[in-house]
Amino acid sequence: MTDYKGIKTFDELIEREHGKIGTESRNSYEESAQLFIVSEMLKEARKEAKMTQEQLAEKAGTKKSYISRIENARGDIQLSTLIRIFEKGLNKKIGLTFL
């Protein structure tokens, strides 16, 4: 069991659970976290637009199974397709930030 004594911040907790920034474990965690965030953003935007996955896929020129995979945070996401889904399918702009 992990010892949580002395942990005072969320960053300290993440480091304790997944390792220091740059380690394989931490990189894997960060990637999964980002994929989860994108999946939740897509689900929320689609539901706000009152669309089914099938309707969104048709409007964006992709497959329902691809929309489902993104919304369930499974598999890789091709950036050009993600942009098309948001811009053509949901009439939303995507902004990217590199840190």
From TrEMBL:
Single GO MF descriptor: DNA binding
Domain HTH cro/C1-type residue range list: 42-85
Short name of one Pfam family: HTH_3
Transmembrane segments: none
InterPro entries: Cro/C1-type_HTH (IPR001387), Lambda_DNA-bd_dom_sf (IPR010982)
Record-linked SMART domains: HTH_XRE
Superkingdom: Bacteria
The protein's name in its UniProt record: Helix-turn-helix
